[in-house]
Amino acid sequence: MAWTKPNVVQAMQSLRLTALPKPTSRLSTLQTHARNSRSYATEAEATKTPAPAAQEINFGTFSSKPARIIPASPAYFSGSPRFIDHVLKLESLQAKYASLPTVVAGEAPRMAWFKLAQFRDYVGEPVPMKKYKSLVKILQRLNRIQPDVVPAEVRETLGSFLRPGNPYAVQNEPATLDENGRARGKGKRKESSAVVQLVEGEGEVLINGKSLVEAFKRVHDRESALWALRCTQRMDKYNVWATVRGGGVTGQAEAVTLATARALMVHEPGLKGVLRKAGAITVDARRVERKKPGHVKARKMPTWVKR
Amino acid sequence: MIVRKFGMRQSRQLLAMSRRAPISARFNSAIPTGEPVVPVMPTQEPEPIIQADPVPRVENPLVEMMSAQSQAKTPAQQEESRRSKFHKLGTSVKASYDPENILRNPPKPSQVTLEMLLAAGTHLGHSTSRWNPQNSRYIYGIREGVHIISLDVTAAYLRRAAKVVEEVAARGGLILFAGTRKGQKRAVVKAAELAKGYHIFERWIPGSLTNGEQILGHCETRVVNALDEVLSEFKADLADRPSLKPDLVVCLNPLENVVLLHECGLNNVPTIGVVDTDADPTRVTYPIPANDDSLRATCLIAGILGRAGEAGQVRRLKMAAEGQTTYKPISAAELRLDPFTGLPPGGEAQKK
């Protein structure tokens, strides 16, 4: 666990060995310079300049004399003192404000707590997942205190466990048509992803610069690519200009469906219900399952042989 | 059935019934029997009536209420007095057990009584079949197959342990309170807080003493003066110091912390342990024979030792305020020396 030793301490150590309080003379600056140049154990000892003694500190008064070396935290011997200090502090807060009214978990303000790795950086200790989860549980309980009666102390403490930049503060704006009257929609299916620009027109379709028939040889794919327009009877009202990448033909066709439906909703938000019922804006999140070691495919096992 | 009431056995009961029990008197009406209600007459003092009554009725709030009502002039006054007296009605529970109290305000070692230890259940040992014969001198007897620990011995050993804690605290030692069982957390933290000590309420990491550099090397330490004020100018000197070791370890569950106690033994760290009848008392330096399975018992013991440590810390700081220390303070020169070779930094080269 020596790797967890803070660099600060090591830096301080090297500072102690090198940069001691400098008198104003030119000699001392030269000495410092000489010491900064690296020396090796294999070199002759005589060439080394001895490190100068530390400057005397005036210890005249009793209170400036050191007496003891003590741990910084009462949880020193646990090996993760900072984490335990945090937990104890949060628990005392929870006990102190246990009687305050709370709201149900869904109504509490959304907070983006540190991710485990961020929290480990924050405390500088290798905290296990389970222990961090128990800490987050306390945070969530404190966060459930009714927002108008939250004490400042609690708010500050909770604030110190938030990851920088509030991801829940950004409200995604509803998409609008651009200055040329185009609506943009993105869709994915299997490995394909499609971007569709939908503009009012006469029903022309260009997919990757090709016509629909050239792009999709199968009738079924053509049907499914324009399913969003067909089910809403908008085939001759819009021009589609799509870019679709990745995957195979079916995936590309269905990615275009989703992208077209989303772009259509920008033009006519009232169609959402119809599109939902027609299954045009339902995301199919299925992906190919990975192959596992010991299996022939994702799940298929090799045939059992007696020996 | 009716006739039996006049029998010899029941006559005693009858006699007893004829006596006015205090409880029945309490609920008696304020108005003495046979006398009419006279609230309107201000000259009528209630006291002669009370004194005439054999039952001490002054304690009866109902009587007081009625009398106050009779004394009050206006209806508003009457109402007020009635209200104030009304709240005195009912019972006040005096001797009740509040589980939090022992945590909030643990007793001092001087306040330890056998009753307190008994109430906390410190006398209950283990089933006789599980005993460790080395504990025989602490055992008072057997009850229902369970060893009963002698409470006077417990109290004596507890006082001795409290003295040890106090003296270590007064000499500026690091006291570690360890209680790793479920539910001992708050007691351990409270004791450490009182004694300005250190706490372990989760697993003791094996090797924290014998391999401290690896396990506690990254934990922060600081140099303080005799008044416990942090001296930040020595921060750089702490870099290559070995990790700290406690000067006293208080273990509430020695059975589960064999490794901790073994490491303490290897490092000459004295230990105090709550030793139940199934534990080995030779594992700790200062055993306290008591029940270690009851949270209330261990909580009490931890609290008492915490209070002892508190007293020691107060004493130490008082002496420090006068400019004295009971221990040999580490000097600035020692801090600057290499802790392993005892030479100044870069001094090896000078020596050669």
From TrEMBL, chain A:
SUPFAM superfamilies: Ribosomal protein S5 domain 2-like (SSF54211). Residues 169-191 are annotated as: Disordered. Keywords: Ribonucleoprotein, Ribosomal protein. One of its GO terms (biological process) is translation. It holds the Pfam family Ribosomal_S9. One of its GO terms (molecular function) is structural constituent of ribosome. One of its GO terms (cellular component) is mitochondrial small ribosomal subunit. InterPro entries: Ribosomal_Su5_D2-typ_SF, Ribosomal_uS9, Ribosomal_uS9_bac/plastid, Ribosomal_uS9_CS, Ribsml_uS5_D2-typ_fold_subgr. PANTHER family: RIBOSOMAL PROTEIN S9, SMALL RIBOSOMAL SUBUNIT PROTEIN US9M. Belongs to the universal ribosomal protein uS9 family. This is Small ribosomal subunit protein uS9m. It comes from Penicillium antarcticum.
TrEMBL record, chain B:
Keywords: Ribonucleoprotein, Ribosomal protein. GO terms for molecular function: structural constituent of ribosome. PROSITE patterns: RIBOSOMAL_S2_1. Residues 67-78 have a biased composition (Polar residues). It comes from the Eukaryota. GO terms for biological process: translation. Signal peptide: none annotated. InterPro entries: Ribosomal_uS2, Ribosomal_uS2_bac/mit/plastid, Ribosomal_uS2_CS, Ribosomal_uS2_flav_dom_sf. GO terms for cellular component: mitochondrial small ribosomal subunit. It holds the Pfam family Ribosomal_S2. Residues 67-91 are annotated as: Disordered. PANTHER family: 30S RIBOSOMAL PROTEIN S2 PROKARYOTIC AND ORGANELLAR, SMALL RIBOSOMAL SUBUNIT PROTEIN US2M. Belongs to the universal ribosomal protein uS2 family. HAMAP family: Ribosomal_uS2_B. This is Ribosomal protein S2. It comes from Penicillium antarcticum. The lineage of its organism: Eukaryota, Fungi, Dikarya, Ascomycota, Pezizomycotina.
